[in-house]
Model the fold of this input.
Amino acid sequence: MTDAHDTAPPSAVANAAPAPRARMAGHALVEALLAQGVDTCFGVPGESYLAVLDGFHEHRDQIRFIACRQEGGAAFMAEAQGKLSGRPGICFVTRGPGATNASIGVHTALQDSTPMILFVGQVASDQRDREAFQEMDYRQMFGPGTLGLAKWVAEVQDANRLPEYVARAFHTAMQGRPGPVVLSLPEDMLTTLTDAPVLPRAEPAHAWPAPGGLRDLRAMLMAAQRPFVIAGGGGWTPESVQALQRFAENWQLPVGCGFRFQDTFDNSHPLYAGDVGIGINPALARRIREADLVLAVGVRLGEMTTGGYSLLQAPRPAQRLVHIHAGPEELGRVYAADLMLQSSMAAAGKALETLAAPPSVPWASLAAQAHADYLANQEGAAVEPMDMAAVMKTVQRLAPADTVYTNGAGNFSGWLHRFVAYPGMQHHGRSQLACTSGAMGYGLPAAVAASLLHPERMVVNVAGDGDLLMTGQEMATATGYGAGRLVSIVVDNGTYGTIRMHQEREYPGRVSGSDLFNPDFAALARAYGWQAERVDTTEAFEPAFARALASGKPTLIHVKLEADVITSRTTLTAIRQAALAQGR
Done:
């Protein structure tokens, strides 16, 4: 006799969705990605996930797999996808070497608070724990924790639970402080038949600051004389960025953007004070040190944003500090703030906008001066024959307003960050793709991803000579998949500039290991099917860049720079002389 609890009511049976047909788990995984709205994945193919590649073929009219030339480049592209979309970027790699190569993109997603999912092929289940060919334990390798590489690492051992793991991966990557997730996929699991249904599209639940905390924040603002806002981090939406701007306008607050999050606030706005990062404007650094209240919204207050924990002394700043962050684990990690509020960035700007402002504030003139200092910092002494400040200003003047700018790591990026003004993401979405993790080689793959994902937008990559050759092979990916409106400006000074700068500061005149032998970058780009040319003078750059913008093809401009011109503020000669004067 059947128990009544074992039988669904007739209406439920009639309305139930038909059970999906049995198919390989690799195909079910692709269907799960489609249910999450994914239409592009990046990766390097591997025999450990052939069933997934077959799933991409099965659904080739709905989703594309971009085959990259190295897993580090593929992971960087997926990280850029996460930045641009606000949802997890997707990367597939094979086991062992594929996973280790891709780890740089996972680390970048972690430090940049970017949602991302790395799927890693794994050895078959009956070969586990034998050190089979390329076998690794990814739960240990990427292990989550205080300083782990990922928010969550798991291995899917049951094909029927694969959709559950995928849905959880999307939730975890977006929830709280966004970040990367790693899922290991045993080869035999992917070929197992399953009729498990895919799960609905995941959406993050947004946390709102506690009302009492908002009241305390308003009281602290009312008592302040020299407040300052530092905004940045991951998880912002165009609507929340717009609300943050209205909050700043209501209270006439000067706003700086954290290291490589310059599109969190419109740089042309009269309340924008500049970027708070490497090579900070000395006037801005002084303003933050002299502030009596710092409101940090979304930023982790890491080493680069705080100038090595000097703008805000750790663990107890001289300024009163309010820290608003999506991750509870981040609040109080380094700084003993006067007020800590947990909030997703999608809600933070809207919550701040609710704070009623007084008719006038005592710091209005200071806010105006902060923007004037930012504008003054756009001027600099010309350095010929190639003036990088003028080059960046030319890029700003000629490139469309919705241009996406990308860069990797190196002193060359200082010119881009200082002399290009980024619109707030409420205007065109994300416009700055740059790694706070300081990973060389990020900029070109990020530019390729941006061009493939948003072919309607111009993409400008600024790279160093050492930086470009970390992932330069992804020029082939751009050509092979039809990237169009993409310009890469390669600043070639024949040295690892950042390392050389530190050498001259600490060991003046004792250069070791930082000189580079470079190819003809223009010839290299042409070999990949790009247009390319070399420019050696400031005057030659503008017509070359105009031709690149009009070409409709990926274009590389090889900019030759003297090794002594090392940063946007000084030269190696000046650094060396200062070090010698101090007796080093």
User: Anything to note?
Assistant: Residues 248 and 254 are 7 Å apart (CA to CA). Confidence is low (pLDDT under 50) at residues 1-14. The chain has three domains: 23-194, 211-376, 388-581. The radius of gyration is 25 Å.
